[in-house]
Amino acid sequence: MSELITRQHDDGVLELTLNRPQKKNALNREMYLGLTELLQRADADETVKAVLLSGSGDSFCAGNDIADFVSSGASAEAARVPLRLLQTLAGLEKPLVAAIQGHAVGIGTTLLLHCDLVYGADNSRLQLPFARLGLVPEGGSSLLLPQLVGHRKAFELLVLGEVFDADCGLSIGLINEVTPVDQVLQLARERAGTLAALPQQAVRKSKQMLRAHQQDLLQQVLVEEIDAFRERLHSEEAQHALMAFMQRG
Ligand code: COA
User: Fold this and answer.
1) CA 211 – CA 102 distance, rounded (Å)
2) Which domains, ranges and CATH numbers included, belong to the chain?
3) Which residue, by CA, sits nearest to atom 1 of ligand 1?
4) Which pTM value belongs to this model?
5) Is 108 in the pocket of ligand 1 (CB under 6 A)?
6) Any ligand 1 atom below 6 A from CB of 242
7) pLDDT tens-digit profile of 47-90?
């Protein structure tokens, strides 16, 4: 398995770390594939009781790799790769904990909507810049974010797409707790350890019950969003915005 995602398995907690710090852990095709496989294996492995996701370096995840978007992101085959990760996250049976710091952009923020506990460093800078990039919401965010914060706040976050901080994430219920940056991973480890020590069938059944009512709808939304996203990737608006990022001085 690629070192772009590192893993450590102790006392029932599988720690998966996005490990491309020089690119702020932007997710390329290999990372999507690797993370999907590791999560699927975690669900099938009885010794894994909780999964902890974090990012190495100064940031959690700067979203989809923009170079990949430009080269192949709009093809049906390329779009299936992030879709499979999102479907896996949305259907994951084991509890998923995230520790975030620094930048969490695009899917780096939307994937948090699929986590069960999220701990945020006080330097976190979250952003959903989809419309700014000529794109549309992904990761189930067009369903899950309005449910969390109502239409107007979701519209503000998804369409105005400005950066928001960990305290804002806390106030809207996206983040459970904010800590100084040097404590966030430790706190997330403690919470994941607590989850791993609880009666496992009760934890899993509780998670399943919390999500069961709209699991089918969410899976349908994920597919619809990816189709709309692909269509937008072909657009002049998106091509222009993505090339502008690639050609920054
Ligand atoms: N895709 C590809 N490369 C990315 C990236 C992404 N999503 N995000 C960051 N990088 C790369 C940068 O190109 C840069 O590479 P280089 O050193 O080879 O030039 C490196 O990561 C460091 O990023 P940099 O922009 O220099 O850091 P910063 O601290 O000034 O800014 C961000 C950090 C996250 C605000 C900025 O990189 C950014 O806006 N990234 C794009 C985020 C995005 O729009 N994601 C897609 C959402 S759908």
Assistant:
1) 29
2) 5-181 (3.90.226.10)
3) 65
4) 0.97
5) no
6) no
7) 999 999 999 999 999 999 999 988 876 788 888 999 999 999 99
